[in-house]
Design goal:
Layout lengths: L33 E4 L3 E2 L6 E4 L3 E7 L11 E8 L9 E9 L16 E9 L3 E9 L4 E9 L6 E7 L13 E11 L13 E2 L20 E11 L11 H9 L2 E3 L18 E9 L2 E7 L9 E5 L14 E3 L3 E3 L5 E5 L3 E7 L7 E11 L3
Antiparallel strand pairs: 1-4, 2-3, 3-6, 4-5, 5-13, 6-11, 7-10, 7-13, 8-9, 8-11, 9-12, 14-22, 15-16, 15-22, 16-21, 17-22, 18-19, 18-22, 20-21
């Protein structure tokens, strides 16, 4: 007999993308673990941008997770060089930026604006109060809620609900409109105000108002976070797990590498980790080109970074690919690109060639279209 209805216990309600956060289970980490992180940027776990001007950190994908909740991975931040007295404008936080076109159903800026609930699991050796902020980049507005680690070295679930904002519509485009920010430490410039429990115009003194966690003050400090979910409504539902391939593709919209999964991009790339071995045609005596098509269409035209391959010619200069013409040799100048768009990049390699000949080339690359 024909199937007329998928049971509620099946997959009909299991995946509806109610979680606004991408990679909330920390299961995707294309960039690999990072050590000695003391500057801001995207580190280790996909889709999370770290603000780091307090202390130095190792950021990694961990298998320490809350028992019985279905998680396999967490984000671990481990303090390796402490800073007990940060400067007034120093900060420690991690952020996910969200495209405005994915948020129109929040109805922000109207009388029907939706409330949002943020939930996550956290574990740390240190107890104290921290803060989650939602920041509207389009209208420079902010709302925040404090949360506390009550028991050291114990997984705890936190749930915070934020009122809808009837002021300031979000742009319907692929730019960053809303940030979900988890603050872990800050200097005095961010701590002298009051937690913005209702939507207000940005006051930087409110970013970490009342925060006592101060995670960067000792090398014994570490924190684990997983199960980050932000959804419409005033209650937290069970975490929405997505298939690994779906989660990976969503992350690759913003960042992609041709290197082996989890290899931290660096020069040189090992032969085993450089997954481009392409055929490039010489269109001039000084240059050949090949097209590289991305696995996933990018949010916007990405910025490209190129990496040399070790263990071929033995040369390891940054950004210079290898060419095979009876033997491996390094190109004479940095890899250049033609037009990179959301779908592909045209790669130009400069050296001495015979026009019309085809050459085997090898190298690594990253395509970054992060917000």
């Amino acid at each position: 007999m024909p199937i007329t209805k998928i049971p509620a216990a099946g997959f009909s309600d299991a995946v509806n993308f109610r979680n606004i956060i991408i990679n909330g289970d920390m299961s995707i980490a294309q960039r690999g673990d990072v050590t000695s992180a003391n500057s801001s940027g995207y580190k280790a776990i996909d889709r999370y941008r770290h603000t780091i001007s307090i202390a130095t950190w190792s950021i990694s994908q961990s298998t320490d997770v809350p028992s019985g909740q279905g998680f396999a991975k967490s984000m671990k931040m481990d303090c390796t060089t402490a800073e007990a007295s940060p400067g007034s404008t120093d900060a420690l936080a991690f952020v996910q930026k969200i495209e405005g076109q994915n948020l129109q159903y929040l109805k922000k800026g109207t009388s029907s604006a939706e409330s949002l609930t943020v939930s996550f699991w956290v574990k740390s050796n240190k107890t104290g109060t921290a803060q989650v902020n939602l920041f509207d980049e389009d209208n420079t507005r902010i709302i925040g809620k404090q949360w506390s680690i009550s028991s050291a070295d114990t997984w705890e679930k936190k749930t915070l609900t934020f009122d809808g904002d009837t002021s300031g519509a979000l742009g319907n485009d692929n730019g960053s409109s809303l940030r979900c920010e988890i603050w872990l430490d800050a200097g005095s410039a961010y701590k002298t105000g009051a937690t913005p429990t209702s939507w207000e115009s940005l006051n930087t003194a409110d970013y970490f108002a009342g925060g006592t966690l101060n995670l960067g003050d000792n090398t014994a400090n570490e924190i684990y976070i997983t199960g980050l979910q932000m959804e419409v409504g005033t209650t937290a539902s069970d975490f929405e797990f997505l298939p690994h391939d779906v989660n990976l593709e969503r992350c690759q919209r913003y960042f992609e590498t041709n290197m082996s999964y989890g290899v931290t991009p660096a020069n040189p790339v090992s032969d085993a980790d450089a997954n481009i071995y392409g055929s490039a045609g010489a269109f001039a005596s000084s240059a050949c080109r090949l097209d590289h098509f991305f696995l996933t269409r990018k949010r916007t035209s990405p910025s490209m970074t190129f990496y040399n391959v070790n263990n071929l010619s033995g040369s390891v200069d940054a950004g210079k690919w290898q060419i095979y013409d009876g033997g491996w040799s390094q190109s004479t100048s940095a890899t250049a690109t033609g037009a990179a768009n959301q779908n592909m990049v045209n790669i130009q390699i400069n050296d001495t060639f015979t026009v019309g000949n085809i050459y085997l080339v090898a190298g690594g690359l990253t395509a970054d279209a992060e917000l």
